[in-house]
Specification:
The complex is a heterotrimer. Chain A is 26% helix and 11% strand. Chain A is built from 5 helices and 5 strands, in the order ββαβββαααα. In chain A, helix 2 packs across helix 5 (140-151). A 4-stranded antiparallel β-sheet of chain B has the order 2-3-1-4. The chains are: A alpha+beta, B alpha+beta, C alpha+beta. At the A-C interface, helix 2, helix 3, helix 4 and helix 5 of A face helix 1 and helix 15 of C.
């Protein structure tokens, strides 16, 4: 079958997709986007995390056909050209990247967290990232990276300092980009 | 991490590859305590040079007595990993 | 046939600039690629016309293959090849130390998951379905899964050499010493898994001339290459390996997984072949940590001074040798711990069974013994009425102490200092009564307690291990350094075969080159076999060995450059140095390096060897076997829900001597990551093996710590130097995994009073309910003390000669003198099977 959707803002399609293929497989093997990872393909590790119509999901648990007509954002869609997204920048600076296999999933998870909760406490960070496994870092520097990114106070009413305007979730409380978000205290720089 | 490699490895391919000669060779090899199972028609002896050479003659003897007509013996002195170029 | 195009996504040099030298923490050169999702791991590789490989694996732990029918699989549309052992052109077995492991099984199957056949197809689902159609006629046999039974006289030999792979004897000091105070213990360590996130994967590309290029995640390129060449029956030059991005290793990538398989399929089909394991397959596709049964006896004087340590250690090596002989040696050498003990009697054996093969995992034998000897030290302290840390201080090793193999420790051995510094770290306050945050309690938001039944405990442990290889192995690494001028600026290329597995080796190499040559622009080329071997990324050795090679090659380049500069400037070379892209004469600027080179290239390749070590004496275990040692201590604080047996880690503090921190941020990352793995072994990680079958091959049931499980880590890193190493550094990767586990269990014991002689600790052990398997069957993954039950696994249960195994005439008996298991456990109310 053919699957057509918007990936990172661009219309894309894949042909000859077998019905049992996951969105993760199509991204990695058919659309040249291997940034989302395949550490377990069972929904246990979070390494395949992407946005599907603004919702943070495991791409390995989404059948390719379910993504038909949807908007998908992957880790490859967060940077603006050569400029890293502030979350990506924070991960490198804080030393949160060792082998890096968990990194894309953690970056999307952190991006999602900070868009919903720009100043999370440590317990809130831990709960939000509990679905992402890392084997190298022991999570200490991952937490440093999240605090670093949050502390830069870059999150604004639109939720995403990269200005990419990710599609908002409809109806969910605390939706970023909505009127209820309000202006954030403290613009760039800490 | 690895123990020092064996000084000598002797790999024997016994023909005919039917049961009698191969089994006899294998059993004799097993008795020496140096044997490795390296394939359907081969057996290998691995260890110090003197003990491998001594064991080799016993294994050859057993295989020949059980009807082996050809035994190919490949002796290898293991070297550590080096780039040939 | 023309060679297929090179892979469209293949590894390439990380070129993001590394801006710092030794002692700084520059950004990783591959960091930007990794956070953008553009870093090519081995599972990301792709090539035009690529086929997918799949592996047919035995479902039985022990069987004999009667026949393999491939016709149905071959005729499936989209399938291009089905291969069996007959199709292996060269040596049909491989192995790190002993080539005893079949590339594809031809007759004997010795573990569940053993590869039997291979399929190549144009879609991974097709390959999987075709693999299911390969019909293997097995004669299913009873597996031999109890290591005690495997050593018993009359046990069926699983390999021609018999079942005892190695038995290390260490006899140090007075073997007949007596002591006023004696404590004994039986301990057990379950089978841990490395559980790296990047699945086994790689891409093999035939070159059209009979050779093959392999892009793969691995730990030692050249040893892979040599095994490949032997099995593919190719000269080494025709097998070229390039390291693809590695998603963690921790020892599990030292053995081959899909390397020979992918190359076989690629050479047969003439097309690139990618093999990628699923997570479930990965649990069967690599070796695990050796489960261990340890029996200890510590003898001490009333004042706490240790008199002797006796240990009997039995490691279950599983189906094939892997690196078991070295793990056995390590466990034996480090069986006593970082203490000054006059007498030691150690017997450590590793045996073959039909359990999953075990091999290298971070800590390598020293993990298992540390759990046991630190538990013993706490028992001894309790028996003496002494503080556990005080007992350790009283017996702490120092510079010049002789380890049980007789070698005197050189350089800093700061055991006492590590413990004192740990003690001085203030304990975090218990939360004020009434302040209820479920997330801080055991069980978390499951809401199983509001503080009732929760007790806090504190535990200490200290451990050590060797750095690098031992027993006379001539270990080395190679580096090629190339200095040239690119776009008017000097540039250094660093080329080694060293495997970056996440630890930051690629950053460190650039830092060393920058420091030694004073050049800003340093490019670390992809690791491949076009340069000499770098040895394995294991044994905490790479910073030392590859760092040493890079340093040596840079020094050689610098010497040539300064000689040339000396001629040009008319100053003696000894007064010149390189800094910031310039040749500097006695601190004053001499000339720009780019001008001096004037378009020429200076290139040097150097091999770095450590000093020679010796083998261990086969009877006494004495010998100068090790290069160096590394020490770490941990203190754990836990809260335990004593009613449900749930543990909440409150915090972990550690002190570790790293010699010299080449990259402080990377050092911290390794320590924190190692602690997480130690925590996993303490609380949750175990491959559950029953009758040779793995019950939990998934992240659903093999639990590794999440961010909710890990506590804050308080680090205290010492840089005490080392007399013998580049920059005075020591290896750092393994010590954090060694003493973290026993510190956590000690803390749980302090909170609960439970003896806890087994890891991972389970809730039923804490609460005190005997687990079902302690009543009915051997504990998972390891044998049990006592003779095997009536004849079912080869032993006849009535050993007439308890002294030693009976040897057959003419067959040497490695088990000679290995203490037999006694009838009863030393602790009748010992928990956990």
């Amino acid at each position: 079958m053919r699957v057509s959707c918007a990936i990172n803002g661009e219309p894309r399609h894949a042909d000859d997709v077998w019905e049992g293929e996951s969105l993760l497989y199509v991204l990695r093997e058919r659309l040249g986007l291997p940034g989302s990872k395949n550490a377990c393909e069972q929904g246990e590790c979070g390494s395949c995390s992407v946005y599907l119509d603004g919702v943070f999901v495991c791409a390995c648990l989404v059948l390719a056909g379910q993504a038909e007509g949807s908007e998908v954002v992957t880790v490859e869609g967060l940077a603006a050209g050569d400029d890293l997204h502030p979350v990506q920048e924070a991960f490198v600076e804080a030393g949160a990247v060792q082998c890096g296999f968990c990194t894309p999933g953690l970056i999307v998870a952190t991006h999602d967290l900070l868009a919903r909760n720009p100043s999370p406490t440590d317990p809130e960070i831990r709960e939000a990232l509990a679905g992402n496994l890392c084997r190298c870092t022991g999570y200490e520097k991952v937490l440093d990276a999240v605090r670093l990114a949050a502390g830069r106070g870059l999150w604004t009413a639109t939720g995403d300092p990269s200005g990419r305007g990710l599609p908002s979730r409809s109806g969910a409380p605390g939706t970023r980009g909505g009127d209820d978000a309000g202006p954030r205290a403290g613009e760039a720089g800490t | 991490m690895p123990v020092p490699p064996a000084e000598l490895t002797a790999e024997l391919t016994i023909a005919p590859g039917d049961d009698r000669a191969v089994v006899a060779g294998r059993e004799a090899a097993a008795q020496t305590g140096l044997a490795l199972d390296t394939g359907p028609t081969t057996t290998a002896l691995s260890g110090g040079r003197r003990e491998v050479l001594d064991a080799l003659s016993r294994v050859l003897d057993a295989a020949l007595s059980a009807g082996a007509t050809t035994v190919e013996v490949k002796l290898e002195v293991p070297t550590d990993a080096r780039d040939p170029g | 046939m023309s060679a297929p195009a090179a892979p469209a996504r293949q590894p390439f040099a990380p070129t993001a600039p590394v801006t710092g030298g030794i002692g700084e923490s520059p950004r990783r050169p591959d960091g930007t690629l990794k956070v953008k999702g553009e870093f090519a791991y081995s599972s990301d590789l792709w090539a035009e016309g690529m086929l997918w490989g799949a592996t047919v694996r035995s479902p039985h732990p022990r069987a004999r293959i009667r026949a393999i029918e491939t016709a149905d699989a071959l005729t499936m549309p989209g399938v291009l090849a089905v291969l069996t052992s007959d199709d292996v052109p060269g040596r049909k077995t491989y192995g790190l130390e002993i080539p005893d492991q079949p590339v594809l099984a031809w007759e004997d199957v010795r573990y569940q998951g053993e590869p039997v056949a291979l399929v190549a197809a144009d879609h991974p689902e097709t390959a999987r379905r075709a693999a299911a159609l390969v019909a293997v006629d097995y004669e299913v046999l009873d597996p031999l899964v109890d290591p005690e039974a495997a050593m018993a006289p009359g046990a069926p030999p699983l390999h021609p050499k018999g079942n005892v792979l190695r038995h290390i004897r260490i006899r140090h000091g007075d073997q007949d010493a007596t002591a006023e105070v004696v404590v004994t213990g039986d301990y057990e360590v379950g089978m841990q898994d490395q559980a790296f996130l990047g699945p086994e994967s790689g891409l093999a590309v035939p070159d059209g001339q009979g050779g093959v290029d392999l892009y793969v995640s691995t730990q030692w390129l050249h040893v892979d290459r040599d095994q490949l060449a032997a099995s593919l029956d190719l000269p080494p030059e025709q097998v070229r390996i390039t390291l693809a991005g590695v998603g963690g290793a921790f020892g599990a990538r030292e053995d081959l997984s899909m390397q020979i398989h992918a190359c076989l399929l690629a050479l047969r089909t003439g097309r690139p072949v990618k093999i990628l394991y699923s997570r479930e397959e990965s649990f069967f596709g690599h070796v695990h940590r050796h489960p261990a049964r340890l029996r200890y006896e510590h003898g001490a004087a009333r004042d706490g001074r240790l008199v002797y340590v006796k240990a009997r250690i039995l490691l279950d090596g599983g189906a094939y040798a892997s690196s078991s002989t070295a793990v056995c040696s390590n466990a034996a050498c480090f069986a006593v711990g970082p203490y000054d003990v006059p007498g030691a009697t150690i017997d450590c054996a590793v045996v073959y069974t039909d359990n999953p093969p075990c091999g290298a995992m971070r800590g390598f034998g020293a993990v298992q013994t540390c759990f046991a000897y630190e538990a013993q030290m706490d028992r001894l302290a309790a028996e003496l009425g002494m503080d556990p840390v005080e007992l350790r201080l009283r017996n702490a090793m120092g510079t010049g102490t002789r380890v049980p193999t007789g070698q005197a420790v050189e350089g800093a051995a700061p055991v006492a200092e590590l413990l004192r510094r740990l003690q001085a770290v203030p304990l975090s306050e218990a939360p004020p009564a009434g302040a209820l945050d479920l997330r801080e309690l055991p069980g978390g938001v499951s809401n199983v307690t509001h503080g009732e039944g929760v007790r806090r405990g504190v535990g200490y442990a200290v451990g050590f291990k060797n750095i690098g290889y031992s027993e006379g192995f001539d270990d080395y690494s190679t580096a090629r350094i190339r200095l040239s001028v690119v776009a008017g600026e000097p540039q250094v290329e660093v080329h080694t075969a060293a495997a970056e597995v996440g630890q930051g080796l690629v950053t460190l190499q650039a830092q060393i080159a920058r420091t030694e040559l004073g050049v800003e622009r340093v490019v670390v080329l992809p690791a491949d076999t076009q340069v000499g071997s770098a040895g394995s990324s294991s044994a905490s050795r790479q910073s030392w060995m590859t760092g040493g090679a890079v340093k040596a090659a840079c020094e050689a380049v610098r010497a040539r450059v300064l000689e040339r500069a000396a001629a040009k400037l008319g100053s003696p070379a000894a007064s010149l140095s390189l800094r910031d892209g310039e040749v500097v004469a006695d601190g004053d600027r001499g000339m720009a390096l780019a001008d001096l080179l004037a378009g020429e290239v200076v290139e040097e390749t150097r091999e770095y060897h450590h000093r020679q070590t010796q083998a261990l004496d086969p009877e006494t275990g004495q010998g100068e076997a090790h290069v160096a040692f590394a020490f770490a201590a941990h203190r754990a604080v836990v809260d335990v829900d004593t009613e449900l047996g749930l543990v909440k880690m409150v915090d972990i503090a550690t002190t570790q001597d790293v010699g010299k921190a080449i990259n402080p941020q990377a050092v911290e990352g390794q320590i924190e990551g190692g602690i997480a793995q130690g925590l996993g072994l303490a609380l949750m990680e175990e491959i559950q093996v029953v009758d040779g079958e793995v019950r939990n091959p998934s992240f659903t049931d093999y639990l590794i710590p999440t961010v909710l499980d890990m506590p804050p880590v308080r680090l205290d890193v010492l840089e005490l130097g080392h007399p013998d190493s580049p920059y005075g550094l020591r290896g750092i990767g393994e010590p954090p995994t060694i003493s973290s586990t026993p510190a956590i269990v000690a803390a749980i014991r302090a909170a609960t009073g439970r003896p806890l002689t087994r890891v991972p600790v389970r809730p039923e052990h804490i609460v005190g309910v005997p687990a079902p398997e302690s009543r009915d069957r051997p504990a998972a993954g390891a044998g049990r003390a006592g003779p095997p039950e009536g004849g079912d696994e080869g032993g006849d249960g009535s050993d007439p000669d308890p002294g030693s195994a009976v040897s057959e005439p003419g067959r040497p008996d490695p088990a000679r003198g290995f203490p037999t298991a006694t009838q009863a456990p030393l602790d009748p109310d010992r928990d956990g099977g």
